[in-house]
Design brief:
mainly beta, five-stranded mixed β-sheet, four-stranded antiparallel β-sheet, 1 helix, disordered C terminus
């Protein structure tokens, strides 16, 4: 080969290389928009107080009421206090309305916008929007598991976290205006305070951001936060962490107090009508604290981890799910912590399975929750069995009541189930056999 031929061959090789690079650049996926964390926003680290110290005075911003938030749940547990109460009546029968098949297990509670569209993610990393009839509107690949319960914000944006260390914001049409990078898995529910801040936890951090993703402050706990923060009447945020503490943080990100238990505190707290903070722990107990952080009572050992979000019945009972080996739903006296009743589920062979689903309580006080035995249960307010909704897999997520006489929940088989009261013309001569009665 002559020198001239070698030069021509080399030029052709370089030209081909640049062409390949050019194609890679053109066809590479466009990087999603995201908010870069600016330096200088406040960061508060936990302290190790020798005693509980409250910061006051407390400014009550809400009325002390037993009323449930009106309408379909737009955020975790349907309201800032996480009571689990709904303004709707639940279904009177286990009649399947529709199902939607997603691509992976659903652990998050479905939330809804004003049009009745549902929003939820899966452990396969996909975030879905499904309309009120169960048809797909749009979906987005988040690239990592979604445990986070989304928030439909007052500004119309939908916020959701994922284990890819990001909080994502979506418009109602599925476009993604921004995402916020975090320092750990963003796998708690998202809540929105009265002052317009959006709160969520990722890793060991509690974040406060504006609607546009601008970070206002970040509070660092000692270990991971898996508990969705509840917001009290004065704007204080309450959440548990895996450092065996419940934290109280004010609206500026400053620690008010923290309270120690003997286990991880993954259960989302619930705030009573008088401001009492109730929460469960891996030490098997439920705790009740006053707003200044002092202990009012702690329950007896319930025989398993208490990781499900707590619910507050209309009769002032504190309702807590218990993990194995004796899974059950328990109801405690809100004033004393004494066990009032329990509803047993079949025995489990592991402490890691049981009742991890939070309860939803309809306007008549009836209770709905999921369990690891592939059923969603409906109970009377006194714990008496009404009927069960069968699924094809464990139900660890919290159900939602999006409309009158409807219930929607996701399961580990990747199915979003919707049940409703059966509506049919009454036939006087019709008789229902025992075999046809709801379970």
């Amino acid at each position: 080969m002559t020198q001239q031929q070698r030069l021509i061959l080399t030029a052709l090789m370089w030209t081909a290389s640049f062409a390949v690079i050019g194609v890679m650049v053109v066809t590479a996926p466009e990087e999603e928009p995201w908010v870069r964390l600016s330096e200088g926003y406040p960061v508060t680290r936990y302290v190790d107080p020798t005693s509980v110290e409250a910061v006051g005075p407390f400014e009550v911003q809400g009325s002390l009421t037993t009323h449930a938030p009106h309408g379909a749940p737009a955020l975790f547990r349907g309201g800032l206090r996480h009571t689990g109460r709904s303004s709707f009546r639940g279904p009177e029968s286990a009649t399947l309305l529709w199902t939607f098949q997603a691509d992976g297990p659903i652990k998050a509670q479905p939330v809804f916008d004003s049009d009745g569209s549902a929003y939820f993610g899966t452990l396969a990393g996909t975030f879905y929007s499904v309309d009120a009839q169960g048809a797909l509107r749009w979906k987005a690949d988040l690239g990592a598991a979604v445990y986070s319960t989304a928030l439909v914000g007052k500004n119309g944006l939908i916020y959701v976290g994922c284990d890819g260390d990001r909080l994502h914001a979506f418009s109602a049409d599925g476009s993604r205006p921004f995402s916020v990078p975090t320092r750990g898995d963003a796998d708690t529910g998202i809540v929105e305070g009265a002052e317009g801040l959006v709160y969520f936890a990722a890793g060991s951090d509690l974040w406060a951001i504006l609607h546009d993703g601008t970070v206002q402050w970040r509070f660092e706990a000692a270990e991971k936060i898996f508990s969705t923060p509840a917001i009290g009447f004065d704007g204080t945020l309450y959440f548990g962490a895996q450092d065996d503490h419940l934290y109280a943080v004010d609206r500026s990100g400053q620690l008010r107090w923290r309270f120690k238990t003997n286990g991880d505190n993954d259960a989302a707290p619930a705030i009573g009508d008088d401001g009492t903070i109730y929460y469960g722990s891996d030490d098997g107990r439920v705790y009740a604290l006053a707003r200044d952080g002092t202990l009012r009572w702690k329950s007896e050992d319930l025989g398993g981890f208490v990781r499900a979000p707590l619910g507050l019945g209309l009769d002032q009972l504190v309702i807590a799910g218990v993990m194995g080996p004796r899974p059950r739903l328990t109801a405690l006296d809100g004033a004393t912590g004494q066990l009032v009743w329990y509803f047993p589920i079949e025995l489990a062979d592991s402490a890691q399975v049981g009742v991890e689903s939070g309860v939803v309580i309809d306007r008549e006080g009836r209770i709905f929750f999921g369990a690891f035995d592939e059923h969603v249960y409906a109970l009377e307010s006194n714990g008496q069995f009404r009927f069960a909704f069968p699924t094809r897999a464990d139900v660890d997520g919290t159900p939602s009541l999006p409309a009158e006489a409807q219930l929607v929940v996701g399961a580990d088989d990747g199915t979003l189930y919707a049940w409703a009261t059966e509506v049919r013309p009454r036939v006087e001569s019709e008789q229902v056999s025992a075999a046809e009665e709801p379970r």
